[in-house]
Amino acid sequence: MKKMIQLGGMVCVALVLLLVSTLNVLGQYTTLTVPGAEGTYAYSISGTNVLGSYTDTNGNSHCVIFNGSTYTAFTVPGLSEPEPSGISGSEVVGTYYNTSGQAYGFLYTIGGGIGGILSVPGAQSTEALGISGTNIVGVFVSGFTVAAFLYTIPGGNYTMFSYGAYKTWAYGVSGTNIVGTYLDSSGHYQGFIYNPTWGTGGTLSVPEAEQTEAFGIDGTNIVGTYYTANGNVYGFLHNGSTYTTLSVPGAERTYAYGICGTNIVGYYFNGSNYDGFMVSTIVLPIVTNQPQSQAALLHSNVTFSVAASGGQPLMYQWYFNNTNMIGKTNSTLTIQNINTNDMGNYFVVVSNVFGSVTSTGATLTIIIPPQSFNIQKTNANQLVLQLIGTANYPYILQMATNLTPPINWQAVITNPADANGNWSFAVTNSPNIPCRFYRAAGQ
Q1: What CA–CA distance (Å, rounded) separates 360 from 366?
Q2: Cα separations (Å) of 426 from 31, 304, 415, 429, 442?
Q3: Alpha carbon distances (Å) from 214 to 132, 156, 193, 206
Q4: Cα dihedral sign for 328, 330, 336, 339?
Q5: Are residues 131 and 147 in the same domain?
Q6: What number of other Cβ atoms are within 10 A of residue 276's Cβ?
Q7: How many domains does the chain have?
Q8: Domain check: are 140 and 150 in the same one?
Q9: Is 434 a residue whose pLDDT tops 80?
Q10: Residue 30: closest CA among 20, 42, 39
Q11: Does residue 6 fall inside a structural domain?
């Protein structure tokens, strides 16, 4: 069965749907409660169908499906208070207990009746916890062994496996990949992903977590719940490389259980009761206009900017030469009275609740006005104009035949300075122009 921390007293739970109007705006949370129910729990999602359960005023549990507009309660023939766990299309899996308290998994086809009872051979109890297509996963107990299983329908064989040194639960499956939770040697829960076909896998552990549990998988996206050392509980989304915390605004605890496409379901504790939630449309940030490199005059002002889209709110953090720029958290970055210490690489990290993206780097080049502009005479009696400026920056040489206003400055050549900022030009002797005046400027 799905694990849930109950804080004592009556638990009142509601399913919450997060509606999305556009790709850039997440919309508002809307509470959805089974009419007359004292509690509603959401565990899994397939397409637009959310699978869960609700408790009535007598404390009895019932299975329910919400299709986005209607709640439909259903019973599994012959089973008393079955606990649903996973849905795939019209197939539902879960667990029920007989009068002796022994657990069995079940497969139920919506509108078609019971599809089968699942019991690992030789096991004292079997719980079916997840389904995808024809694959069912869960956990069984045999003696002192608590291990996971994979079962393929119809009429397939059980594949039993353990991950880690102690107990193993398999909660979700997508293709040939299984996610779940194992108990490590220190008594902490850790998530895992495992591919029994290839015999490969890995531990899923949120970096700041003391314990991590993985419950749902769809493709490369995995969801679950993690617990910190100081008692905080959050959901998480793992996209194959990055962990993103899922925390319902205002909630004391958030639990994420199921995922299908871009939809995540779970529930949260708001301080007095539990509310279910569905996060619709995972919109990671995307940079639509990158910061551009600039060359600016010494002591001038420059502004870098970025444009991004994604689930709101978007947050920005600028970096200079890989160092966090404290307080620079807008989509634009203005640097006033620039000097040579400001030369370098600038980039910004744009983030939201679902993840982050890093912009390309933009280089700031400081243009130093021409310095030490002078004339040197070579051994060949040739005149060479020299100046010191910005490395690799193009300077324009201009000439005038007199300085009587209005002065007619004419461009002679545009050449870049070398890597050390040195610039030079050999003057060609012209007997027809007895007097010439030169000046250099930045491009």
Answers
A1: 20
A2: 80, 39, 12, 9, 19
A3: 16, 25, 8, 10
A4: positive
A5: yes
A6: 27
A7: 3
A8: yes
A9: no
A10: 20
A11: no
256 close to 246: Cβ distance less than 8 angstroms: yes
Rounded to 5, what percent of the chain is helix, strand, coil? 0, 55, 45
Identify the H or E element spanning 220: none
Pick the closest to residue 279 from 12, 11, 50 (CA basis): 50
Q: What rounded mean pLDDT belongs to the chain?
A: 85
Q: Residue 41 has which token pair?
A: 């729990």
Residue 47 lies in a domain: yes
Range of the domain at 402: 368-442
Same domain, 376 and 344: no
pLDDT tens-digit readout, 2-21:
443 222 222 233 333 332 22
> Does residue 28 register a pLDDT over 60?
no
* pTM listed for this prediction: 0.62
**Each residue of 64-123: pLDDT tens digit?**
999 888 889 999 988 888 999 999 999 999 999 998 889 999 999 998 888 889 999 999
Task: Give which of 241, 274, 243, 277 is closest to 257, Cα–Cα.
Answer: 277
pLDDT (mean) for 37-46? 87
Tokens 């993103």 found at = 244
Among 332, 366, 400, the domain-final residue is: 366
Sequential DSSP letters for 227-289? E-TTS-EEEEEE-SS-EEEE--TT-SEEEEEEEETTEEEEEEE-SSSEEEEEEE-----EEEE
Q: Give me the pLDDT at residue 100, please.
A: 87
For residue 414, what are the contacts with CB-CB under 8 A and spacing of at least 6?
Answer: 394, 395, 396, 397, 443
Q: List the alpha helices (DSSP H) in 341-424.
A: none
Q: Do 151 and 233 have their domain in common?
A: yes
In a domain, 148, yes or no: yes
Same domain for 203 and 60, yes or no, is yes
225 in the same domain as 121: yes
Residues 87 and 211 in one domain: yes
d(CA 152, CA 128): 12
* pLDDT value, residue 18: 32
Q: Quickly state the pLDDT bin for 266 (edges 50, 70, 90).
A: confident
Beta strand ranges found along 143-196 (DSSP E): 145-152, 158-161, 168-174, 177-183, 189-195
Q: Residue 197: its pLDDT value, please?
A: 82
- Per cent of the chain over pLDDT 90 is 49
- Report the distance separating Cα 364 and Cα 232, nearest Å: 43
End position of a domain, from candidates 366, 401, 432: 366
